[in-house]
């Protein structure tokens, strides 16, 4: 199989260059489902890659299969052009038929094996990336469950959702395509240059002539494309936000007759998105034709210089054929690298955002876990000179003290922003106080285990949250081991049984997270049933009767009265009618207790509460 110079060089062309096995041709850059190519702080990239590696390592076997099949595919890709050259030089030109079939079969086997390894590589890479992102998603969700309320208060839910979906899908796409392509691009580049050098130094130089131009163009196009894709993502975000706002605020839009103004506004946004979309797509689409043109230019240069060198017996015709193919293989990784770099960057940024969440300190670490009270809780709650601010320098509660004896109903009233909800946030230890103490049955709650503490407290919030599932499952959320009879008993006590029975599937009616077919009041009755089932010693009712009609309100009030019996209850209410029977009404103003006493006592004192009550009475709201 000598590739020495032939005695009589012939002008022959290599015909159509075979495609390499791996799909290494140019693929127009996919619009980043992925969001704009976010900037990656380079100092973090290595660390982030190490952490992705930490997840990848869990799939050790798949990883090895991907790496070895990539190396094998590349080696076979590089071997084929060499064999074609040999066939031309040793069999075609000398008209040597002996062994030609064997060589043909060998070439076929090389292509066949190449295809098989490529398939194996793609299949395993897909499996590897899906396993890895499954593990990341799991880790993220588990971490969300353990993070403190303050973490969620500081971020929008949309942003956190996007970390679990968009960012992780970025990582998955990159693991799936980019990493494999980056490895094989580099191997092909290095390998084809080495193969070319082993055949002819001069021809290698000629082949590489067009490379700097191609690389320059590829880089320029990729940079414009990225810029336009990033703008496209921004405009897309605007359009999505506008649509979402208008759908969720549909009633307001209709009531204020804003339909046509909104349509006009949307038309403008939509037009901006179209304009930048055209630019993004046309720039990314121009990469293919331009790179093809560069490759064809390279073919011409190789053919002309190859012929000249061959006339001078410097190389064989087979070598020209090999070079034509190596130049083909060589140009593709350059496009690949230019294309994949951006995707790779945006995936690293996505992974960084995921790891940022994973790095947040969870709420309950094992060593911090506190103790339990070894007797049933009576529900004696004391706040003593409590100072607290969400930011320590801006206190919301200033030396607040209160006492609730077991079974008492304590009402919290006061202007908006006074700190009523904050008191609840502290009792449940969603936040911890800065000074003073909060005690339940004499025990400082900071020493109690948080899960234990929260088990003792039932929460019925204004924004009654219903999870996707059946009505029964939603009530059972209060106590997972409750049987069907207990669930129904709780519903009866909560005045919810009546409406549930009227639903088409009764307790098995599915409801969705948004509440769907349930009214606000019905959802509230469900959450009361949930609290009944949980049977806590301390109860918190946060403005639970606002925004429902009077009949439902009566239902809810009745249910609440039953629920509060024998439990220490804190009721936050704007409508004073709901708290007239409270044992103690605390008027909170500026983080302090401004007044306290029973309804009658406070009316008599004639201060803030009395004024508010008279005002509401005049409005017909506090009857
Ligand atoms: N998560 C938070 N981070 C920072 N500041 C907060 C947070 N929650 C509440 N605040 C601030 O703390 C103060 C007290 O708020 P809080 O929710 O306790 O008032 P409230 O009396 O319950 O009001 P409303 O009757 O309107 O519900 C307000 O100034 C509010 O802006």
From TrEMBL:
Q: What is this protein called?
A: ABC transporter ATP-binding protein/permease
CDD domains associated with the record: ABC_6TM_Tm288_like (cd18547), ABCC_Glucan_exporter_like (cd03254)
Which domain of life, per UniProt? Answer: Bacteria
Keyword annotations of the record: ATP-binding, Cell membrane, Membrane, Nucleotide-binding, Transmembrane, Transmembrane helix, Transport
Q: Which residues cross the membrane?
A: 62-88, 100-120, 179-196, 202-218, 297-324
The Gene Ontology terms for molecular function here are: ABC-type oligopeptide transporter activity; ATP binding; ATP hydrolysis activity
| Bias type Basic and acidic residues, positions | 33-43
Which positions fall inside the ABC transporter domain? 381-615
- Regions of compositional bias (Polar residues) in chain numbering: 1-11
The record's region (Disordered) falls at 1-43
Which InterPro entries does the annotation name?
AAA+_ATPase, ABC1_TM_dom, ABC1_TM_sf, ABC_transporter-like_ATP-bd, ABC_transporter-like_CS, P-loop_NTPase, Type_1_exporter
Q: Name one Pfam family in it.
A: ABC_tran
Q: Which SUPFAM superfamilies match?
A: ABC transporter transmembrane region, P-loop containing nucleoside triphosphate hydrolases
PANTHER family noted in UniProt: ATP-BINDING CASSETTE SUB-FAMILY B MEMBER 10, MITOCHONDRIAL, ATP-DEPENDENT PERMEASE MDL1, MITOCHONDRIAL
Whether Iron counts among this entry's keywords is no
**Location(s), subcellular:** Cell membrane
Which residues belong to the signal peptide in this entry? none
Q: How does it sit in the membrane?
A: Multi-pass membrane protein
Q: Which GO terms describe its cellular component?
A: plasma membrane
Report domain ABC transmembrane type-1 positions.
Answer: 64-346
């Amino acid at each position: 199989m000598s590739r020495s110079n032939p005695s009589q060089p012939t002008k022959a062309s290599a015909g159509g260059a075979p495609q390499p096995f791996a799909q290494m041709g140019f693929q127009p850059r996919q619009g980043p489902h992925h969001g704009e190519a976010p900037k990656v702080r380079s100092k973090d990239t290595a660390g982030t890659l190490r952490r992705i590696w930490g997840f990848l390592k869990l799939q050790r076997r798949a990883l090895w299969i991907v790496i070895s099949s990539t190396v094998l595919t590349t080696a076979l890709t590089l071997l084929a052009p060499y064999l074609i050259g040999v066939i031309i030089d040793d069999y075609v030109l000398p008209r040597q038929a002996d062994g030609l079939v064997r060589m043909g079969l060998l070439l076929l086997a090389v292509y066949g094996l190449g295809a098989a390894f490529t398939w194996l590589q793609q299949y395993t890479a897909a499996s590897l990336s899906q396993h890895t992102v499954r593990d990341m998603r799991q880790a993220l969700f588990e971490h969300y469950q353990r993070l403190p309320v303050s973490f969620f208060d500081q971020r929008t839910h949309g942003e956190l959702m996007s970390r679990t979906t968009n960012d992780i899908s970025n990582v998955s796409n990159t693991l799936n395509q980019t990493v494999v392509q980056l490895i094989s691009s580099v191997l092909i580049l290095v390998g084809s240059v080495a193969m070319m050098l082993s055949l002819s130094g001069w021809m290698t130089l000629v082949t590489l002539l067009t490379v700097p131009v191609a690389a320059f163009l590829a880089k320029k196009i990729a940079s414009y494309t990225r810029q336009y894709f990033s703008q496209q993502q921004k405009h897309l975000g605007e359009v999505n936000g506008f649509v979402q706002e208008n759908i969720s605020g549909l009633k307001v839009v209709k009531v204020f007759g804003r339909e046509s103004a909104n349509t006009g506004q949307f038309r403008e946004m939509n037009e901006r998105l179209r304009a930048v979309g055209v630019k993004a797509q046309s720039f990314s689409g121009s990469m293919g034709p331009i790179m093809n043109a560069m490759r064809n230019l390279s073919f011409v240069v190789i053919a002309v210089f190859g012929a000249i060198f061959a006339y001078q017996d410097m190389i064989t015709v087979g070598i020209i054929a090999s070079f034509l193919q190596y130049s083909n293989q060589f140009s593709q990784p350059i496009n690949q690298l230019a294309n994949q770099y951006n995707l790779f960057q945006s995936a690293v940024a996505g992974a960084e955002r995921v790891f940022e969440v994973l790095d947040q300190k969870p709420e309950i670490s094992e060593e911090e876990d506190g103790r339990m009270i070894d007797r049933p809780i009576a529900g004696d709650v004391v706040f003593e000179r409590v100072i607290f601010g969400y930011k320590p320098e801006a206190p919301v509660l200033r030396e607040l003290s209160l006492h609730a004896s077991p079974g008492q109903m304590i009402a919290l009233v006061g202007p908006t922003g006074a700190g009523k909800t904050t008191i609840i946030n502290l009792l449940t230890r969603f936040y911890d106080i800065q000074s003073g103490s909060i005690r339940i049955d004499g025990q400082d709650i900071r020493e109690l285990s948080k899960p234990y503490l929260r088990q003792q407290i039932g929460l019925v919030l204004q924004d009654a949250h219903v999870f996707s599932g059946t009505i029964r499952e939603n009530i059972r959320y209060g106590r997972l081991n409750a049987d069907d009879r207990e669930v129904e008993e709780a519903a009866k006590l909560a005045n919810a049984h009546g409406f549930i029975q009227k639903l088409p599937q009764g307790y098995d009616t599915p409801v969705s997270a948004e509440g769907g077919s349930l009214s606000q009041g019905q959802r509230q009755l469900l959450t009361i049933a949930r609290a009944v089932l949980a049977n806590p010693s301390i109860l918190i009712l946060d403005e639970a009767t606002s925004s429902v009609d009077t009949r439902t309100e009566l239902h809810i009030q009745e249910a609440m009265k039953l629920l509060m019996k024998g439990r220490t209850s804190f009721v936050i209410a704007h409508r004073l009618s709901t708290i007239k029977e409270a044992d103690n009404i605390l008027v909170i103003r500026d983080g302090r207790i401004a007044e306290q006493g029973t309804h009658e006592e406070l009316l008599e004192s004639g201060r803030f509460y009395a004024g508010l009550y008279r005002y509401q009475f005049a409005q017909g709201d506090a009857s």
